[in-house]
Amino acid sequence: MAVTMREVAEHAGVSVSTASRALGGSTSISEETRTRVMSAASDLGYRVNRAARSLRSRESRLIGLVLNNLLNASFHTIAQVVQRRLAAEGYQLILCTTDADVTTERNLLETLADHGVDGVLVIGSGQNAEITNALQASGTAVVNVIRSSRRSTSPTVLAADRDGSYEATRFLLELGHRSIGFIGGPDTADSGRERLRGYRDALESEGLELDESLVLRGTFTPEFGTAAVDQLLSGPHRITALLSANHEATFGVLPALVARGVHIPDDLSLVCYEDMPVLQMWQPPVTVVDNGAQAIADLAVNLLLDQLRRRDPAQRDTRTYRVGAELLLRSSCAPPRP
Amino acid sequence: MAVTMREVAEHAGVSVSTASRALGGSTSISEETRTRVMSAASDLGYRVNRAARSLRSRESRLIGLVLNNLLNASFHTIAQVVQRRLAAEGYQLILCTTDADVTTERNLLETLADHGVDGVLVIGSGQNAEITNALQASGTAVVNVIRSSRRSTSPTVLAADRDGSYEATRFLLELGHRSIGFIGGPDTADSGRERLRGYRDALESEGLELDESLVLRGTFTPEFGTAAVDQLLSGPHRITALLSANHEATFGVLPALVARGVHIPDDLSLVCYEDMPVLQMWQPPVTVVDNGAQAIADLAVNLLLDQLRRRDPAQRDTRTYRVGAELLLRSSCAPPRP
DNA sequence: GCCTCTTGTGGAAACGATTGCACGGCCCTT
DNA sequence: AAGGGCCGTGCAATCGTTTCCACAAGAGGC
After folding, report:
1. Residue in B123, B50, B55 with CA at minimum distance from that of residue B91
2. DSSP state of B189
3. Are B49 and B4 in contact (CB under 8 A)?
4. Measured between alpha carbons, how far is A273 from B309 in angstroms, rounded to an integer?
5. Tag placement on chain B: N or C end, fewer CB within 10 Å?
6. pLDDT digits (tens, 9 = 90+) for A49-107
7. Residue A312: its pLDDT value, please?
8. Is the pLDDT of residue B99 over 90?
9. At a CB cut-off of 8 Å and minimum separation 6, what does B189 contact?
10. Which residue of B54, B251, B283 is in closest CB contact with A277?
11. What does each C-alpha distance from B121 to A268, B129, B321 come to in angstroms?
12. In 3D, which of A35, A31, A36, A9 has the Cα closest to residue A20?
């Protein structure tokens, strides 16, 4: 059906091996035959058969991206950046979503291996290090993103969750707030733990102790956010500031605050985690901790390309990188009213 | 490195062909050898080499999805649904973004062909019908999504843009509005034309003529939305309702309305196109025309799977389907104040 | 008891590329 | 003028499967 290299070779009056070398090759080929083969190829509309090439040369030009879902803003930003960068380097992206399920994740990683991917970027559970390590060992490039895995032998790019949270909390403290609510993710998530730690560390830096009743942690859902706001605002202590550090919950937090008629920043100062368009257009625009999804994706791609280019697997990079968070000041924070 | 079928065969004491049949096969194999091969395979941790299979049997279990970008809500919803449905059927998704560039689109389609994809879903420019038709002719399943292409020989799933817009406008008319602003996409986009047509048709159904000064069309950017609001609200005619039918522009429209202190729905009734979380949590929650991205994706996947399963390419489905839009009533509309 | 038909199995040829090896010719050196 | 090296090329093996064909053995019909 499609035109093969053999036909190109015949058309150019050379052998298949010469055609192969002329088209792909770094090996010595006379300038004349090279151009002859080239033009034969373009005359016939030759296109390489990737499956055949992959079989023989073990290079598929396919990269797997494993992540939770595409609905989270950080995730689809990362997917977008990764896809674009890799396409520019001649790689295609196989997209896999796991719904945070460990078994699904394992199956997907194995399926990616079946397809002979040259590399994988994993925003994973951290529970499948044996598989990614095996991939790594068999010559596949691997980069862990956002989620770390202690037993992984591959480089990792993390968000500076603790630092971002620390900075946001310090900012609120410096405005004079002493009663700061915290809405976060569960202990099972790296981000859940780290953002809480940043919050606690900041309080301690001012000699304050963490008040358990101001800290609410739960699932990555809008519903939890709504419930958390209700609980915080009907609690015994009046909070004057709120750090919403659970991305999905933020979608419940914002309407809940509006529904209760909370005026921002007069009644309450608000800082949210992970920037997205809605927070810029919210009224007032919301001060956020930008976790730098784009920068994370860029760095992850760089580390992946490094591995793909490096022939010598001995000097592997197994380092963990942190991409700094940034506090983007907008209009949702003010000193507490007396 | 990886264990091959040959090793499995040896381990089970059969020939490679028998092993192949035992593992994949529909052909006759004694129950006993089948189980022997199966257990040999699982003992050794055998996994099929997809490249080899693809080369021999021309089935890659890879599907390409071509779209503009992932930042648009409808697009990443579609990507998410498509990926999930296909994974459940044992297909992996190769994700390609074009940035609406025709040349990029062509290159990506050809690269997908190089990889021997079994099918493609294209949210495309409509300019590359020769390529998708060639793919179709060579046995690849093709479905056009959202964007039509007159010369395409493949089935197409479209949003009911004209109808959605018509319905939204009728709804505003029935509330009593007579001066309704329209912010839309350019003429080059199907959606831009069709939504305008729905608006015009609805006006005509009430015997009203379209007032050019109330219709603003421009690029798919928030900036255009902001500018459009400024122009509409400082125009000679006071509008009492607004249909924001350009998804990206909506991100500029909403803050612009807030900035101008427009009270919704008292000063202005608002309907936006394409639902997204921010519109549910906006204050007040915004009435929208839901174009049914999820339903579109589901139908597109069904049509794709039909083609993949159907052996006989003669009785191909080349129909165009429309997925009905739905008006989701929230709180952003009211009768005009006298 | 012979012939045919079915069933299960193995041999070997693809699929379309890459690549190690060998070879013929030319240039250069001595 | 002869020998060594390099350059350009072709032959053929190989990657791991699937699948066509042939064949052996057993069942069943006459």
Report:
1. B50
2. S
3. yes
4. 45
5. C
6. 999 999 999 999 999 999 999 988 999 999 999 999 999 999 999 999 999 999 999 99
7. 66
8. yes
9. B220
10. B251
11. 47, 13, 14
12. A9
Nucleotides of C under 7 A from a protein CB: 7-12, 14-20
A246 vs B37: CA distance, rounded Å: 49
Residue A278: how many CB atoms within 10 A of its CB? 21
Contact indicator for B66, B121 with CB cutoff of 8 Å: yes
Contacts of B179 (CB under 8 A, 6+ apart): B211, B214, B237, B238, B239, B240, B241
- Residue A51: closest CA among chain B residues belongs to which residue? B51
Of A50, A138, A283, nearest to B116 by CB-CB distance is: A50
Q: What percent of chain A shows pLDDT beyond 90?
A: 86
- Please tell me the distance from the alpha carbon of residue B27 to that of residue B43, in angstroms, as a whole number: 23
Candidates B42, B49, B50, B85, partner chain A, best to mutate (most A CBs within 10 A): B50
Among candidate residues A36, A74, A49, A108, the one with its CA nearest the CA of residue A185:
A74
Task: Give per-residue burial for B228-245: e unless 16+ CB within 10 Å, then b.
Answer: bbeebbeeeeebbbbbbb
